[in-house]
Amino acid sequence: MRVAIAGAGAVGRSIALELVENKHKVMLIERDLNQIEPEAVEDAEWVHADACELASLEETGIERCDVVIAATGDDKVNLVVSLLAKTEFAVRRVVARVNDPRNEWLFDSNWGIDVAVSTPRLLAALVEEAVAVGDLVRLMTFRQGEANLVEVTLPGDTPLAGKAVRSLKLPRDSALVAILRGGRVIAPQADDGLEPGDELLFVATADVEEQVRGALGY
């Protein structure tokens, strides 16, 4: 993919490094000249420009990008970048960083955002995931709340032990997408057995999460 990242601070650079390592083409857009350090991500294209200005984005050729990531430390900037990328340049996928959880409600399709990533919320979810067994933990939200990635760790006394994946009576608008077991990632098949300690990852709409919990015997 060709990916444009607005904001070359610590977060933007970290994302760029990961994407470059995965063989994607990355363009970092930064308006602060002091933050332009091509040696920090050598395989990325660095552009000194203001991503909030339409003319600047036109010069970068952002319309050729498959994904735009608004990763600055300013929520207002991230909203403007996202809106321009989606409405003016028809970028297929727009991801935006939420710095202040109080602004999270703004980061939706009205601002051209497909996926909003709130670091505080994600960290809280990961803490819950680390300590919660037998409870459903929401890890990430997709499509402005239309669907969530949720996780459940099966406890030692789970009634599902030894039963096949096919035995799960999941509601409509939900799917078991992965089983994490002993350092392995298992793509679940109907005949795969479930074991205590399995971490089950589901994608589900918010209104059926309780039904997913019920299907697991909770």
Rounded to an integer in angstroms, the radius of gyration calculated over CA atoms is 20 Å
Q: What is the tally of helical segments?
A: 5
Q: Please report the distance between the alpha carbons of the first and last residues.
A: 41 Å
Calculate the mean pLDDT score and round it. 88
- Class per helix and strand makeup: alpha/beta
Query: What is the N-to-C succession of helices and strands?
Result: EHEEHEHEEHEEEEEH
Instruction: Catalogue the unreliable spans.
Output: none
Shape: elongated
Query: Could you estimate the helical fraction of the residues in percent?
Result: 10-25%
What strand line-up does the widest sheet have? Answer: 3-2-1-4-5-6
Beta fraction: 25-35%
Number of strands: 11
Q: How can the largest sheet be summarized?
A: 6 strands, parallel
Walk me through this protein's architecture.
The chain starts with a strand and ends with a helix. It has helices spanning 10-21, 54-60, 75-87, 119-131, 209-215, and strands at residues 2-6, 25-30, 45-48, 67-70, 93-98, 115-118, 136-142, 147-153, 174-181, 184-186, 199-204. It is elongated and about 60 Å long. By secondary structure, the chain is α/β, with parallel strands linked by helices. The model has no long low-confidence stretch (mean pLDDT 88). The strands form 2 sheets. The chain has a 6-stranded parallel beta sheet with strand order 3-2-1-4-5-6, sandwiched between helices. A 5-stranded antiparallel beta sheet has the order 7-8-11-9-10. The protein contains 5 helices and 11 strands, in the order βαββαβαββαβββββα.
